[in-house]
Structure prediction request, 623 residues.
Amino acid sequence: MSSFYRLEFEKPVLELEKRIEASETRLTEAATANPPGEGTGSPEVESLRSEVDRLKQDRHRLLTDLYSDLSPWNTVRVARHPLRPQTRDYIDMICRDFAELHGDRRFGEDPALVTGFARIGPIKCMVIGHQKGRDTQEKLACHFGCAHPEGYRKALLKMQLAEKFNVPIVTLVDTPGAYPGLGAEQRGQAEAIAVNLREMSRLRVPIVSVVIGEGGSGGALGIAVADRVAMLQCSWYSVISPEGCAAILWKEANEQTNSAAAKALKLTARDNLELGIVDDVIPEPVGGAHRDPKTTAENLRQWIVSRVQQLRQIDADTLVRQRYERFRKLGQYTEQAESAGNPA
Amino acid sequence: MKTTARTWQDVKTHRKSAIPEGLWLRCPGCAKMVYRKHLEANLHVCPECSHHYRIGAAERVKQLADPDSFQAMFTELAPTDPLKFKDLKGYKDRLLAEQVKTGAIDAIKAGRCFIKGREAMLCSLDLTFMMGSMGSVVGETITRAIEEATRTQLPLIIVSCSGGARMQESGLSLMQMAKTSAALARYDDAGGLFISVLTDPTTGGVTASFAMLGDVILAEPQALIGFAGPRVIQQTIRQELPEGFQRSEFLLKCGMVDRVVARGQLRNEIGRLIDYSGR
Ligand SMILES: [Zn+2]
Prediction:
């Protein structure tokens, strides 16, 4: 249980949790000492019971407050929570008959990107998602969710397979960024991502993407050129991590500058919705996805199924054109009079 | 419309240089003192050691386009501050300072021109403006240039030099990667020839979008080209990077670029590639 409370801002919840635990222990003791007779329990048991109820209500209220107004930096922390559900967790919870497919047929198999056919509710689809890893071994194999070029190439290969059989594509984004390393550079990390951006833009099947945790820059976008893009409520999506941004623009990354950078980057789900970068925000249960993976998965499932079913109604030419237009309009600039060549 | 191939003597008279003022400079390549006028006459390439100096977009366009053939387009696009971004300095102030410093509105020049007599759409990123970073204006200009090249069936040449996506426009900068790449898909569908020229340095979101999508990819010698910056990689893997890592010649060996081409040969190379494509 202790790993639930690694987040600093959740400290008051931990305090309440301890009091609830203590009261529950006392309640159990009291109930054992005063076994329920034919009527109600003893006054002591009754008062303890209502105390526990009250504390639980307090906890619920506190969590609601804390999560309704998470700071951007705390949002990043929740998005990185060690118990936050990952792609494989969602596959377990919402997919049936998952047929995992491996390998890029060029270099290798990258476990940081999971791909395979699956059924979600009434739909057949190709699921593509970043996996960060649960235990140490899996984390190392997945490079903590940082995919290599072979991961991006594998993702594209499976997406093209889906296209061939007119199967819609569902991608789950959860990466701090594409892996920065020797082999990744040698094997063309930039090229792999770039090709995905170009090819995803012209795939002739519906594509829906959800940022489920971290949406770190090109490594995230590399599987997120979709017809509909959503973010889970406590995920983040941006051109750079707050730490990376702070290190460059604030000259050092620390608690204060990370927090400032997180705010400046407009990386929350609400911010990205306002900027038109995502189309929907999928709500998380009170206290975040890690407190209630099942409800989160159900919200996710509903969104995926409804969006894929909508997109299924659109013919392929229109679909591809609308996807182009969706990204085409993103960006903000002014158009000055033609003669205004001089900014001064 | 064929123009005679110009000599470099023709252009040296009216060149404004990105190189710091002074008659002599010490070459970072060979540490020798180089006479500034010689350097300029040599396309800002050291006559002693062939070190390729970084140049701005105006100089690049002058070097590549036939004399007086470049017609700038999309110059009406100007940056805004959509996120009200503020780090140690506000983005608005930063933009203004860069505009005053460079005389440019943002980090790109685009337009139609002739290259050795072949008509083409030419874009060059501008390293002198916020490290050539790609925000909305750079992304929109490149996208419009690609769309125009698609419409007019012109070959497309984009010269890249960039620190990557512009942080101050965050997610909107990121989306320029998808936007430009999607435009290239349409250009590709239409059978267009895209020659991507990578120069020092080309990194981050620019490399991971249009820069690596050339039908042919040329790189200037010794240019730093990569997805992640060397410092980030070093911090991640905690070991020394091999000699020449992420340089053009290294990418050539890795199969990531078609040719490493010295600056003086770029016009010739582009010209003959256009001829081979039949465009
Ligand atoms: Zn030299």
Notes: Residues 177 and 216 of chain A are 5 Å apart (CA to CA).
